[in-house]
Amino acid sequence: MILESGPALALPIGLPLLAGLVLPMVRRHPMPWLVAGFAFATLGSVIVLAVTVGHIGPVIHALGGWEPPLGIALRADGMAVLMLLLTAVVTTVCSLYAMWQGHETALGNRWFWGVWFFLWASLNALFLSGDVFNLYITLELLTVAGVILVTFGKPPAALVAGMRYLIAGLFGSMAYLLGVALIYGQAGTLDLALLTTAPPEGPAGVAAAALMTVGLLLKTALVPLHAWLPYAHASAPSPVSAVLSGLVVKGSFFILLILWTGPFSALFHQAAWQLMGILGAVAILWGSVQALRQERLKMLIAYSTVAQIGYLFLVPPLLMAGAAAIAWQAAQMQIMAHALAKAGFFLAAGNLLMATGRDDLAAIPGVRNSLKMSLLAMALSGVTLIGLPPSGGFAGKWLLLAASLETGQWWWIVVLGIGTALSAGYVFRAVAPTLRQDVDAEPHQPIDVRLQVLPLTLAVASILLGVFAVHPLDFGSIGGAFGAIPVGTGE
Amino acid sequence: MLEAIYGSLSPTWLLLSSFITGMAIFFLGERQVRARSVLNLTGAGIKALLTILMGFGIYQGYRFESRFELLPGLEVVLWADPLAFLFTSLSAFLWLLTTIYAIGYLEGSPNRSRFFGFFSLCVTASIGVALSGNLFTLLIFFELLTLATYPLVVHRGTPEVIRAGRLYLGYTLGGGIVLLIGTVWLQAMAGTTDFTPGGIFQAMGEERPGSLALTALFWTLIVGVGVKAALIPLHGWLPIAMVAPAPVSALLHAVAVVKAGAFGIIRIVHDVFGASLAMDLGVSVILAGWAGLTILFGSLVALGQNEIKKRLAYSTVSQLSYITLGVALLGPVAVVGGMVHLVHQGLMKITMFFCAGNLAETLGIHKVSEVDGVGRTMPWTMGAFTIAALGMIGLPPMAGFISKWYLATGGLEVGHGWVLAVLIASSVLNAGYFLPLVYRAWFRSPPDSDGGPARESATGLWMLLPPILTGAATLMVGLLAAMPGSPLDWSEFIVNSLYMFDLGPVNDNSGVR
After folding, report:
1. From CA B32, how far away is CA B155, in angstroms rounded?
2. Cα–Cα nearest to B439, from B481, B487, B382
3. pLDDT higher for A112 or A104?
4. ∠A431-A434-A436 over CA atoms, to 5°?
5. Which residues of B touch A474 (CB under 8 A)?
6. Angstrom distance (rounded) from CA A385 to CA A378
7. Which of A132, A245, B27, B506 is deepest in the core (most CB within 10 A)?
8. Would you give the distance in Å from CA B91 to the centre of its chain?
């Protein structure tokens, strides 16, 4: 049963959008059913799209029948669908978590659910958009929704963190929009495919590209533009942190990759690509070292996100001829593995917070027997974050190493080695207290077993992703519109 | 009918027998002692049976293999060849015995389900290393071994134990990173990491990478596995890991971690590079020298240790490099000596660790200075220990003598007379740190002469039987070395059927069979 490409593409955006509009108007009683219903319906629509793309290849749909350059196109190839699936799985699990968490914030507040589904809708729209301005809209929605969701955390920290996130996000959006305007002025179109065949050039083109890049780097929190992230992700409610760290930052990175391998591929000198990699390396080292210094679990995890984002930025310099396919696979694997592992980690940390009222690392030994599943989830997520086999993180790391060797850029190998050692360090700090026997059990709130199963599911998924890696990677190569672009030929 | 059985036998089953057992045990409650013991012993028993079955098949020329694509173009390969069987059978047999020992040792301790769960995973990883068909698979199981052993090492859970565990992880993960880099590099250089008798690069001919790159790759790989193989100065984790409970020290130091390291060296030298390439590059001599240094260093430091387990740990550092030495010398007799020592050292060392555990648990003895007269109160334990100690020193007819004989003659055969000097020095040093212990136990009176052999019954059968069995095995394996099916026979079988030594006039199999 393959849907016509139009509805197949529109549903993953339309369903959560509808949910976002409807849910704030609903009473408390039917809320859980509606939340679950919309979540699974969206997941289902994404699966249908995946099956469609698997059968007939990449699909395109022009909204309202208007073809580009006038109209807006939605595009879905293998990689976009992988991102959609990832988003659907992680967000569904986090929705269930927020729902079952009940008393704290989520269930009572219809506005939370409205904004939550708006976030999901904008993520899906981001991955499906084929138009540069459309991407701006989705970025804006994403940021605003993210900021609002952060503020549902504990005041005053959450409010302050949300404010910083908002300011950083707005600066990023402004820069991006300015770039879009420059491009439109020069090229007369905003469609990605058309811009790739007739790329922007000259000073205006370079300025546009630089502005858009800086904006996206700010949103992806690449060092040194990362300052807003640790506080925002640590102060937000746990399911929100999970989605922000796992998915939202990947969205802007996704756009960056598409732009740099599409319209901007010929604009930049080789050095610019290497600069991305260097910033990524700094992010890995800086983020990991900061994570090692944290006493609070959620801050540790947030700085881990800063570090793991650095791994993503090792991909651009590796997108050279000969290794481009491997580098794309590395990007996909890293994005998916990190999202699953990080979400699992945050949800488990949320359990710790609920049980003891605090998320200090020192609180862990006291609850080691009652939170067994959550602590196991943290350990398994940690395995992926370090990159030990047979996890998804290992697959991503292997692919990055292979691409580095293939292109002769051996210096990334050193970075990857040090990064692995450092991440082992901070994961150890979070997981080792579990094995302490000399601390008495502390009184704590009991945690529902359903809330403990969810992070474990995500953590196990991140490991299984590595065991069965061939399948998503093969799927992700469908279309290859973002495939082996011969970049790095130097200018 | 046997053909049908062999046809359907897959190396994966060997792994699954302990993996499924481990997973199941994790879900058992603390008090379900009987269920846990049954699961443990059933799993161990099945694995032993499958191993024996596979052994018969391999002897008749069958080869068992299974493949699984992990990443596009990269396969996990499980491959049961005679060398794999050597390590697998050691692991399977000793796992059974250590499980029995551990059941007795941990009676009444907390977290037993967690312990035995990780115990089973540890053996799974160890056998995975044994059955690896390419370096990629070896890497994966190597790292899994690190992960699975860590909770066992820190089982006691005190802050000092956790600190020790951090160092353990630091060493082993560090080695793992180096091995990962080496493996990716090999894949890039050769297009494959499949183990090939004679070496991967042999078939490449003209396109072979340059000597400098190959030498760098060799040392990267050796350092990667060298942490687990306890080559100095990468050996530091071994004495630190002695904070683990006795069954863990026994398993780690006879079977799992250290043997995996030595096994890795064998595979790298003979199945990745091949004997002739190793000789051409000049790396094998250096590796042999490095092993020789480790042998002497380990024995020297062991002399100064008062704690029994630390003394055994440094002895392991030393003895393990016998394997490396034999393998690096490249002559057939030497390689036989190194491979057979893999089994022999396992048997002897595990006996000693079992006995050390018994002494600690029953009489609270942790130091050499405390063993006076123990031979009278715990005769069976000390009896087994004495046999193993004499074997380590190299007294016939114990297993250790066989290994040293082959190593010595092998060294002379390839023209490296210094090997004989190292072995003699090492035997003297071994005597220096084992004989005092044995002497004090048997020939001095205990500090307080209460209770005779009756004290030993307090140890319990679970903890007495395994060292007696392994001690007896040490003796038998030496006495019956000439019989078909002995570890020596099997090692010769490996060397004859797999390795072609292009070393000129040496290649006439003199001294073998």
Report:
1. 19
2. B382
3. A112
4. 125
5. 72
6. 10
7. A245
8. 8
Question: Which tokens go with A334?
Answer: 């890293």
CA distances to A421, B131, B236, B308 from B246, in Å: 29, 27, 19, 12
Phi, psi of A28 (to 5 degrees): -65, -35
Residue type, B191: G
- B437-465 confidence digits (pLDDT tens): 888 888 887 776 555 555 666 778 888 88
- Looking at residues B377-404, what average pLDDT do you find? 86
Answer whether residue A286 shows pLDDT above 90: yes
Nearest CA in chain B to A432: B162
| C-alpha dihedral sign at B130, B191, A466, B222 | positive
Q: b/e map of B156-185 (b: 16 or more CB within 10 Å)?
A: bbeeebbebbbebbbbbbbbbbbbbbbbbb
Q: Which of A311-315, B197-201, B276-280 has the highest mean pLDDT?
A: A311-315
Residue A258 tokens read as 């598409």
Largest CA distance in chain A: 69
Distance CA B86, CA A361 (A): 45
**Residue B205 CB coordination number (10 Å):** 7
Give me the helices (H) in A102-156, please.
110-128, 132-150
Of B72, B144, B158, the CB nearest to A389: B144
Q: Which residue has the tokens 């549903």?
A: A11
Write out the two tokens for A111. Answer: 């506005």
Average pLDDT estimate for A103-112: 65
Chain A residues with beta carbon closer than 8 angstroms to that of B165: 432, 435
User: Above 60 in pLDDT, residue B501?
Assistant: no
Q: What is the pLDDT of residues B396-428, one digit of tens each?
A: 877 888 888 888 888 888 888 888 899 999 999
CA nearest to B218, candidates B238, B200, B194, B206: B200
Q: Which residue has the tokens 């020193």?
A: B393
pTM above 0.95, yes or no: no
Q: Tell me whether residues B147 and A383 touch, CB distance under 8 A.
A: yes
Sorted by sequence, the CB contacts under 8 Å of residue A155 that are 6+ apart come out as: none
User: What residues of A are in contact with residue B213 (Cβ under 8 Å)?
Assistant: none
Structure token digits, residue B366: 């942790």
Q: Tokens 């992010």 label which residue?
A: A283
Which two structure tokens, joined as six digits, stand for A51? 């099956």
CA contacts within 13 A on the Cβ side of B419:
33
Q: Which tokens go with B319?
A: 């003895």
pLDDT of residue A71: 67
Could you tell me which residues are beta bridge partners of residue A296? A360
Cα separation, B209 vs B190, in Å, equals: 8
Contact A437 B144 (CB under 8 A): no
Q: Comparing A82-86, A234-238, B197-201, which segment has the lowest mean pLDDT?
A: B197-201
B117 CA to chain A: closest CA distance, Å?
13
**Amino acid A396: pLDDT:** 94
CB contact (8 A) between residue B111 and residue A329: no
Residue A401 touches chain B, beta carbons under 8 Å:
yes
Residue B132 pairs with which residues in a beta bridge?
Answer: B78
The verdict on whether omega for the bond into residue A156 sits within 30 degrees of 0, i.e. cis, is yes
Interface contact flag, B71 A432, Cβ < 8 Å: no
Return the minimum-mean-pLDDT range out of A256-265, A361-370, B463-472.
Answer: A361-370
Q: Which residues of A touch B157 (CB under 8 A)?
A: 435-438
- Mean of all residue pLDDT scores within chain A: 86
Residue A73, H or E segment: strand A73-76
Whether cis (ω within 30° of 0) applies to the bond prior to A390 is yes
Distances (CA, A) of A181 to A216, A280, A394, B191: 15, 28, 41, 48
